[in-house]
Amino acid sequence: LLLLLGVLGAPALGDPGPLEDVVIDRYYIPKICLREAQMGDFIRYHYNGTFKDGKKFDSSYDRGATVAGVVGVGRLITGMDRGLQGMCVNERRHLIVPPHLGYGSIGVAGLIPPDATLYFDVVMLDIWNKNDKLQITTLSKPEHCNRTVENSDFVRYHYNGTLLDGTPFDSSYSKDSTYDTYVGTGWLIKGMDQGLLGMCAGEKRSIIIPPFLAYGEKGYGTVIPPQASLVFSVLLVDFHNPKDGVFLEHLEVPASCKRRAVTGDFVRYHYNGTLMDGTLFDSSCSRNQTYNTYIGKGYIIPGMDQGLQGVCVGEQRRVIIPPHLAYGENGAGKYKIPGSAVLIFDVHIIDFHNPADPVEIETVFRPEGCNVTTRNRDFVRYHYNCSLLDGTRLFSSHDYEKPQEVTLGANKVIEGLNSGLLDMCAGERRVLIIPPHLGHGESGARGVPGSAVLRFEVELISMEEGVPEGYLFIWHGEPPANLYEQMDLDKDGGIPAEEFSTFIKSQVAEGKGRLMPSSDPEKVIADMFRNQDRNQDGKITPEELKLKSDEDQEKIHEEL
Predict the structure, then answer these.
(1) What positions carry a catalytic annotation?
(2) Exposed/middle/buried for 12, CB within 10 Å: 0-12, 13-18, 19+?
(3) Which fold has domain 247-351?
């Protein structure tokens, strides 16, 4: 086809003279032209039609509807057929159509006179062909993509929808909500069903959909004209399949894992919770406080109940949970979790235990020839280092000038440590793992988190044989028959504190008896005197002095 191209200046518009062909003025050409209208293409365009004197005879704008048709196959006047070919979307042209390429010597009754030259101002809005296919352009894609969208998956995505000329018709962003639907089940237009396949979470695509894969001849309401190509800019936020289970990624597993968590265990862990697009919705780390719960008992969402099964202390694990095992279609407003959202938890296991756990004792070193071991009521001196199972240091006796001292079985240390110090030899070293119900419990203590499992490294330095509970002093044999007379050193009928202390010390020195072990023997003797000086007058009388065995017998008689 011979197309006469030129800029219509004043002389040309004033008197072009007899025309043999269409005069085309491409007065606006877009910078990007992906496609030009060819013979047989289906096009949509707007136009104003006027005569030489500027009088309007027709306008698609006045009708409020674009013109749609096939170009180059004789369905338009010849001049328009020729003048539209080679146009880009959004290109604007002035066309001058001579009578023999317009309505000729007949014209259109009441509208266009015979032998009229026609002037058209045209803007091209859409071009497509029945042989067109979906056009997909990947704009960005995550570096790691372990899974892509398949038919029957449920997707959540954001989109901007425009016509081919850039006219916007819809946007999920303006609604501040993703579009959520199944793929490949007929809930979407065919082109979008196809265009979403193979996408990764976080991927961005441009999808150009021809009308026969979109809304076709009917269009959609007032926003999408008939036979309109659609352009979608899509960001896939997340997707899942209703058949999905929990997916685990083991990010870091300790080389030594003696025990794995099972249903009924109480787990303390840190986590970061994100959506698939990386949006953080919650974090225990930001609160600097672990999340503590039983697993397998329904206290947490089902996906996390499953995802924590089999963890080791110190393990770092990624738990990917589909919505039907998380917060479902409704989401969780408190955490800004949208409906039908896939959740990703990066968890770090601090410790776990079971309420039935005893103290775990590992003997690191035990001296040979160990015949004497610790029992309750013994007085022991020991060194220790105390930490959490993740290695966080809490306390150490090495920070002080001397070892820790305690009477076992006197409720002076936590129950688990007391148990772990029993049956030890002097010089023995142990590692103790103490569950919280034998430690500081749910409330914790100063510097110790609630429900924390504790690790003690202990070394027994020395031990002294104790006395039975309730006793401050015992004889190795029978006590003297004339105890009061022997204790009353100056024979004045009263025993002051000095005489009492001198007598008790002599019994210990002669090996006839022993005091309750203590770092302060003087205090033990003072307590003994105070117990015997019943009227607190500073001296013990014969009536006041009683052995503990006699006191216990009197209590029995009183009860009887």
Answers:
(1) 47, 57-58, 77, 103, 120
(2) middle
(3) Chitinase A; domain 3 (3.10.50)
